[in-house]
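Suppose you are handed a protein chain with no further information: no name, no annotation, nothing but its sequence. What can you learn? This example shows the usual starting point.
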Amino acid sequence: MKNKPIGIFDSGIGGLTVAKAIQDLMPQEHFIYFGDTAHLPYGEKSGAAILAYSKKITEFLISKDCKAIIIACNSASSVVFEPLKKLYGNQLPIISVIEPVVMSLKNSSQKNIGILGTKATIGSKIYSNYIKKLTPQHLCYEKATPLFAQMIEENFASKNVSNAIIEEYLSDENLKNTDTIILGCTHYPLIHDEIAGYYHYEKEIIDSPQIVAHEVKRHLEERDILADQEHESSHFYVSLYTKSFEESAKIFFKQTIHFEEYDLWEDLK
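A reasonable first move is to predict its three-dimensional structure. Written in structure tokens, the prediction is:
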């Protein structure tokens, strides 16, 4: 069990920021990553569709003998975390990217929290509901910022068009009154500096990848299933392969990786 892979999935590319954080924190581990590129972005999909896709991916990762599964997508985590725990949680740990971030606020002295995310994540109110439940002393304001993910994937993050989009979203008066900003999408760490700079580095900016990586390590330690020997190579799958996606992956994973296409619905054809 200790030397089995960790399963990680996302609608596409953003979850690679979580995979990279896990690799950096626990280099002895290896993982199987699945990007559901045939159905991205999840942020624009219905809850029923996201659940259907996530169940198929989870079953694929279980078939690959994974010892834990990380939902490395805020949109998916906001919809499927509890259903997947009920369905598969007796077999292996299911970890979201949302709950660990909220838990990290428990001892924070900051009071006013801004949350940036996709339409699906913000529409679910998952962050504000968790925060009210676990840290009721905090006040929350949620802002849908769907164009952020698109501009990052198109590599516009350092161009004038990104400055206009950042200005449009972050000029919201409610966000100006916050002292902490949660980046509620695994794409957004790539524009951490731009967001921090917009606020003159006066706000705490919280990314999920490092927080989630430490949460994964905690789960593995609790179950005594941390890898104890040199790991095998990690494997990367997508539901629809394109060369451009593979090229963009370098931005998120900080190294060249190769994807294998796997049709989730092949067994139904």
